[in-house]
Amino acid sequence: MSPPSPWWMPDRHADRRPFLVARGKIKTAIRSWFVDQGFIEVEPAGLQVSPGNETHLHAFATELIGPDLTATPRYLHTSPEFAMKKLLAAGEKKIFAFAPCFRNRERGALHAPEFTMLEWYRAGVPYDVVMDDARELLALAGRTMNQQLVSWQDRTAVPANGAERLTVAEAFSRHAWIDLDGALLSDGSLDRAALASGATAAGLTVRDDDSAADLFSRVLAAFIEPKLGLGRATLLTEYPLSEAALAQPTHHDPRVAERFELYCCGVELANGFGELTDPKTQRANLERQMTERQRLYGSRYPLDEDFLAALAHMPPASGCALGFDRLVMLATGATHIDSVQWTPGTD
Q1: CA distance 90 to 314
Q2: pLDDT, tens digit, 9 for 90 and up, residues 22-33
Q3: Strand 233-237 to strand 259-264: parallel, antiparallel, or no bridges (unpaired)?
Q4: Strand pairing partners for 267?
Q5: Which candidate, 10, 13, 34, 5, places its Cα nearest to that of 343?
Q6: Do residues 340 and 328 make contact, with C-beta atoms less than 8 angstroms apart?
Q7: pLDDT digits (tens, 9 = 90+) for 186-201
Q8: How far apart are CA 71 and CA 270, in angstroms?
Q9: Where are the alpha helices (DSSP H) in the chain?
Q10: Residue 242's closest CA among 281, 271, 277?
């Protein structure tokens, strides 16, 4: 089979153009929605001291070379999160951004090395509010395209039907027959032996070097995610504290965090938090993530000390990051992320 023609060939561009025009309409509608809600659009810089400190995210590294030819390591951010939280510390209350983001080792129908993240923050509100925001933005994308149904592969959902709210423990019980609550320790970490036993019973092959976090992610990907957001969207809530390094604990159970993800048609669309603002706890969480990254990949990223300092000035807040390209795909029926990016990257 011959490779596809370059995206800039007129015939291929003509096939993609309806999706790209739709992308613009959805962006305009979302921008208007945020402005009507009293938000300010911001433009966080992509070049950062730290790309973010999630274990499994891989960054693009570069150097900042000064006039004296001194080279300093820099990274393209994997998310605008750290920069936008600094703006909250500076005094902003309601902000949003359409931010170009960069993640290495990611390529596929739903993944691109460069993509657009729609990220927003509200100071002084519970995270339920940004959950409602995420659900409403999904419905808005459908309305903008005059689509009652959104789809991915053979799965469909009706955004106007709202969203089911399901805890992670409920999802593990319903879809993988695993008692996650029983595997959750008092400090919010997962009992590896208990989780391995449940994963094995569910039919997952457990490797000797699988950590508890590895098993959690593999169960989620294999048994749960494909069944979320079918018919209507799903808000998956209350992640184990160990799986939510940037979120604060819930008030009713300190073992789980104020973290949610929005799923539609089996696709993860958004990831949101009731934001952790304690610098000491945040440092420990990020260090733990980087220690695990060192174990798995033999490298670690620096912490953004400026971000940690800013947390001491940041008000209570909630925020969410939504994959804008994926949202456009669901609302338009596009089957590959390249179809909804004006100038998709080349491998």
Answers
A1: 8
A2: 999 999 999 999
A3: antiparallel
A4: 264
A5: 13
A6: yes
A7: 999 999 999 999 999 9
A8: 36
A9: 10-36, 81-90, 127-144, 168-176, 192-202, 212-219, 279-297, 305-311, 324-332
A10: 281
